[in-house]
Amino acid sequence: MTEVPNSVQYSTLEDVDFVIVGSGSAGGIIAKELSTAGYSVVVLEQGPHLKAADFTHDEWGVKYNFDLEWDWRQGHPQTRRRTENEEAVVGDSSLRYAHNVGGGSVHFSGNFWRLREIDFIEASVRGPIAGTNFVDWPITYAELEPYYTKVDWEIGLSGLQGPWDPPRSRDYPCAAMPVKSSGVLLERAAKKLGYTAYPAPVAILSEPHNGRPACIHCGLCNGYGCEVNAKSSTMVTMIPLALASGNCELRTGCTVSKINIDESGRANEVVYWEQDGTESAQRCKAVVLSANGAETPRLLLLSESARHPDGLANSSGMVGKNLMFNGYSQAIGLFDEPVHAYKSIPATRVVHDFWELDEDLGFYGGGGIDSRHPFGGNLISTALSGGMFGGATWGVEYKESLQHLFTHSCSFDGHTTSLPLSTNNVTLDPSVKDMWGRPAIRVTYNEHADDIATMKFFLDRSLELMEAAGATQMEGSYDENSPWTQHLLGTCRMGNDPETSVVDRYNRSHDIPNLFMCDGSSMVSSSRGQPTITIMALAFRAADLIIQSARRGEI
Amino acid sequence: MKQRQMSRRAFLNAGGDAAKGSCIILTMPMILTACGQANDARTSNNDFQLLSEEEVLEYSAISARIIPSNGTPGATEAGVIYFIDSVVADNREVEHQILKDGLVTLQSEGAAQFGVASFYLLKDEQQDQLLRQIESSEFFNTIRFLTVAGMFSSPEYGGNRDKVGFELLGFTDQHAWQPPFGFYDADYAEKGE
Questions:
Q1: pLDDT given at position A3
Q2: B188 half-sphere exposure, CB direction, 13 A CA radius
Q3: Residue A1 lies in a domain
Q4: Can you list the residues of chain A whose pLDDT is less than 50?
Q5: Within a domain: A352
Q6: Which residues, listed in sequence order, are joined to residue A442 by a DSSP beta bridge?
Q7: Which residues of chain B from 134 to 193 reach within 8 Å of chain A, CB to CB?
Q8: Segments making up each domain of chain B, as ranges
Q9: CB 3.0-4.6 Å disulfide test: which of A53, A367, A476, A514 passes with A286?
Q10: A33, part of any domain
Q11: What is the pLDDT of residue A552?
Q12: How far apart (Å, rounded) are the C-alpha atoms in residues A144 and A541?
């Protein structure tokens, strides 16, 4: 493994233009945009700079030792509870995210569904929902579209414009990925029932693009790093360009503890621990937090001071609130012939007929259905589910059931909306500490009834599709009270009103003029379960606006 | 085409530079130790890092009922017990305590019902009967989880010897594929869908 040497090193005592906290989906993009525009940038990343050669198909390491995501085993406990009346307890982390250069874009599944026009204006179209913070975005699809297209081309997407997709200014750069059997089963079933399945848009290359090779269909995207650089993470797309600019210093193994504010109320210093525990601080003209929807609010809450007793940038009281998980449901079916859904990318076909559910159903929601290997192509996970169709869960019969379960199964998965609630949030745990002695992330999360109704609706549709697909046996479930998510959304929401939102329509803090937050925390609504493309589009847009602002001398 | 995934040990050996730049070093030595000792254990066959001889005999016998060796390799041939030993030794005191406590209960049930306190000395039918009684216990779930994980995880961790677990699932340990991937997409293009 060879480290890419930094071509520039900045003194911590002299101002750099920007410190960016986090190098993931948003941070990687903003680092590339600002540094190639000529600004001096220091990126602080908690994890290491891994490379393709570091990634393996090691399920035990990735899924159970949390090698990439980190957990209590690596000194980063989280606590969880459903309501504020309960005491939160330590378990496997609820908010799961990467700790490495490129962040979650390194181990995501790469499903890149753009939001549609309706997503940005849904609250005013449908009307408010009592007891929730469901509101319109301060921006429209049209404003974000050029940046979605930047994501398509600069990050690298494969796909085909679908029948109800929002308008796009340019085609996908790469053709859709080849369909696999699980996709064919979904497509044929959808046709029978009068729905439309079309190629899943993905941030994985079907053909060479921007100097990177096409996917080799190894089968393990979800949770794993790509071993051939065909997955379009910011680690392989943006970070190399940022480093090549000569204006970006990437400091790995650096965990930020606090943002300092000067007398005039501007952010002027980012305090962090180096790998060996040494405390450092980088002086800067402006700060961008792209630490993700869990770490960004935690950092703001940790940066409390006499002047900001409720945490930094939190005059609205909304920092950490409106956490949204995305709903999930899954129908699993067994088929007569080999499906081998463990090969190639997770999903090759999507059904988007249910993006918006009929108001007459009596609840709010929407989403999409795709087809996958039921257990992500994972062997241990498959075998743990042996007996799921009512058979034995151990012994001879169990053993015999395993082969079909792995090779002849497929799932139709529903990815759905979550409503933003003040009661679903990230706060600082009063007693549990992480390895640095900081209060652990405490998650309070309890699905809104409409989120559960939506998951149930999608499960029913998936089961109908599964039957139409010809499954010989099927089972379904949805994640009511899901214990965990990798979609960390809404915790520093964007809005025009400083009373009810944390950042403005330019991702700038309403309170601190040279502090920007841009990552999943900016999301106003939850998306239909595939938020990363929107996080990336917001990052390109925020960077554009930050550059314009800097050129006007406002930073 | 890459024929074999890079092993965890190779990763660790090659990973010195990057690991230095990250907190990952805090956990890697533990894993490295566990892997190394599991491999040593496999060659000597007696050398367990944590489990007592009695635990080895008893957990092995339980694993062998969960994934039996009925004509094709089961938990015994996969060396699942070496996996259990290495991962329980890796900072999993809670799980180890569940195993030890559960074993005591299981043995006292065996003694009460069949007059034999050692589970591994019971007949297969007696063993199955006892296990059926505790199917929903935390102990059984823990040892089932560890048995399954040991059967199907990378051989690096001590189990899945000769990749017998891969074979059982019908998984071909190959690193690149081309369409058609399965039965149902084989005629997709031909049908002009």
A1: 53
A2: 19
A3: no
A4: 1-2
A5: yes
A6: A79, A427
A7: 135, 144-145, 148-149, 151-154, 156-157, 165-166, 168-171, 175-185, 188, 193
A8: 8-169
A9: A514
A10: yes
A11: 95
A12: 7
B168/A403 touch (CB, cutoff 8 Å), yes or no: yes
| A21: Cα within 13 Å, side-chain hemisphere | 31
**A169/A185 Cα distance (integer angstroms):** 31
Residue-range definition of the domain harbouring residue A206: 16-51+59-551
CA-based radius of gyration for chain B: 20
- Indicate yes or no: CB of B11 within 8 angstroms of CB of A2: no
Give the pLDDT confidence of A49-83 residue by residue, as tens digits. 999 999 999 999 999 998 888 888 889 999 999 99
**Phi-psi category of A223—alpha, beta or left, where left has phi over 0 and alpha has psi -120 to 50?**
left
Q: Which residue among B20, B165, B184 sits closest to A184, beta carbon to beta carbon?
A: B184
pLDDT tens, residue by residue, A214-226:
999 999 999 999 9
Q: How would you class A432 by CB atoms within 10 Å of its CB: exposed for 0-12, middle for 13-18, buried for 19 or more?
A: middle
Helices B80-89, B138-152: crossing angle, 10 deg rounding: 110
For A35-51, the three-class secondary structure string (H helix, E strand, C coil) is HHCCCCEEEECCCCCCC
Question: Which of A497, A490, A492, A455 has the alpha carbon at shortest distance from A476?
Answer: A455
Cis status, amide bond into B68, omega within 30 of 0: no
Q: What is the pLDDT at residue B189?
A: 84
User: Given CB atoms, is B32 within the 8 Å cutoff of chain A?
Assistant: no
The string of DSSP codes covering A108-124 is S--B-PPP-HHHHHHHH
Based on the structure, what is the number of domains in chain A?
1
Asked whether residue A4 is domain-assigned, the answer is no
For residue A219, how many other CB atoms are within 10 A of its CB? 26
Place of tokens 């019902």: B113
Q: B41 pLDDT exceeds 90?
A: no
Spatial CB neighbours of A120, under 8 Å, sequence gap ≥ 6:
A136, A137, A139, A140, A141, A144
Least Cα distance to B68 among A448, A394, A534, A385 occurs for A394
State how far the alpha carbon of A65 is from the alpha carbons of A58, A223, A226, B152, in Å. 10, 12, 19, 15
- To the nearest 10 degrees (0 to 180), the angle between helices B93-114 and B53-66 is 80
ipTM for the assembly? 0.93
| DSSP character string of A371-416 | EE-TTTT-HHHHHHTTTTTSS-SSSHHHHHHHHHHHHSEEEEEEEE
**In the Cβ-directed half-sphere of B153, how many Cα atoms lie within 13 Å?**
28
Q: What is the CATH number of the domain that holds A464?
A: 3.50.50.60
User: Which of B63, B94, B175, B185 best probes binding to A when mutated, by most A CB atoms within 10 angstroms?
Assistant: B185
